[in-house]
Recover the amino acids of this structure.
């Protein structure tokens, strides 16, 4: 890489220098953050998160949902927008969890836990567990974290203790590559015409639009809960009246 760079300069090649301000941009109360990061998605510099020029104030979560469900799917197809939006959500959740923890009456004890060194002795080990407990409180606000998974385990055990052992263990695995609804969600055409496409075309459509895959999965799970388990309905369904249910999403791959 360095050899090609030197050769490029010797041949009079040009470079693009991207500067930055002295102060980093804030994730909070900054409507211009996303238009500055994605000018090709916000060509007029408007429409970012926390925009005060709208008819009503909406949350960041709702605004991200609106952008990802935009009709031409330009936000869905951008390879970085959904990833950065999710990353910012995790940062804000951890910051909010730390703020709520530090805002409590035992702030001084928490500060002592974080600043004091931990030694491998009995009393110090207790202090170490206090630190881990404080950090777990913050980490629990971050979706997908180890502490979040531990809390889900506790919720499952509590639900089992209250309602008894589950009667059914059901694995739902919608095939998005072969399903016409998923292919419609991933396609940029607004009007759907049934047509037979090659298998590699299916893979390309789903592979380049992760939002469409998540949208299809949510759609199928909600249909399953409503029409198979009867969740939210007053009448019993196929398996009778559902006393309780708990669902998790299995993540595969690196």
């Amino acid at each position: 890489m360095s050899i090609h760079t030197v050769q490029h300069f010797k041949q009079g090649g040009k470079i693009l220098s991207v500067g930055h301000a002295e102060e980093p941009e804030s994730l909070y109360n900054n409507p211009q953050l996303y238009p500055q990061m994605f000018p090709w998605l916000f060509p007029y510099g408007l429409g970012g998160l926390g925009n005060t020029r709208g008819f009503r104030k909406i949350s960041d979560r709702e605004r991200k949902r609106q952008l990802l469900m935009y009709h031409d799917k330009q936000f869905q197809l951008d390879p970085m927008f959904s990833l950065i939006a999710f990353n910012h959500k995790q940062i804000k959740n951890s910051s909010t969890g730390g703020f709520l923890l530090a805002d409590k009456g035992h702030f001084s004890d928490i500060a002592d836990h974080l600043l004091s060194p931990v030694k491998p002795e009995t009393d110090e080990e207790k202090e170490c567990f206090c630190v881990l407990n404080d950090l777990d409180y913050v980490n629990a606000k971050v979706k997908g974290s180890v502490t979040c998974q531990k809390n889900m385990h506790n919720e499952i055990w509590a639900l089992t203790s209250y309602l008894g052992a589950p009667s059914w263990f059901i694995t739902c695995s919608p095939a998005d590559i072969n399903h016409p609804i998923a292919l419609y969600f991933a396609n940029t055409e607004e009007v759907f015409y049934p047509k037979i496409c090659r298998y590699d075309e299916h893979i390309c459509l789903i592979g380049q639009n992760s939002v469409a895959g998540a949208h299809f999965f949510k759609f199928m799970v909600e249909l399953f809960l409503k029409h198979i388990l009867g969740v939210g309905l007053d009448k019993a369904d196929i398996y009778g009246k559902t006393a309780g249910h708990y669902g998790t999403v299995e993540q595969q791959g690196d």
Notes: The CA atoms of residues 64 and 85 lie 8 Å apart. The mean pLDDT is 78.
